[in-house]
Amino acid sequence: MKKTWMIAGVAGVMILGGAFGVSAVSNDGQWSDKNVKVSQKQAEDTAVKEVEGLEITKVEKDVDDGVQKYEVKGMTKDGQEMDVDIHAESGEVLEVDREDSDSDSDQVSAADLKVDQATAEKTAEQETGGTITESEVDDGHFEFELVDDTHEYDVTVDGQTGEVIEYEKEKK
Questions:
Q1: How many CB atoms neighbour CB 162 within 10 A?
Q2: How far apart are CA 54 and CA 49, in angstroms?
Q3: Does the reported pTM lie above 0.70?
Q4: Architecture per CATH, 103-172
Q5: How many CB atoms lie within 10 A of CB 147?
């Protein structure tokens, strides 16, 4: 009889332990206001400070690799779509993505480029303040990877206009 109660007790503990384990796992990846120290308004203000002239169109709450963040989406006055990720606990800018939706030079060959490599490199370095680690020409665009002390950047410069058409900033 004692053996039966002991087996039932052990089984009950295992079932409860499993239920708590599943509960802990199922909450992983879901937004929780418990640890959030930055309001949505503060995240929006940070994004506007990070990207001059940003007009916010949407703010999403997201969890990426266990990190809660606000994804602030918007448009600049010159028509570039922007995504700015703000850490929900610290308020730190985690990533900035920029893509020009009006680019007309998608299928330009390297021979048809109006901007030379040196000019495109200078533009990318001025945009980020970083140092170029990799570069290539693809579909009429110069694509650069740059780094500084705290961030990594991916920058695409239009080979026809010399303008930055894509910009991504990510914390190391």
A1: 16
A2: 8
A3: no
A4: Roll (3.10)
A5: 15
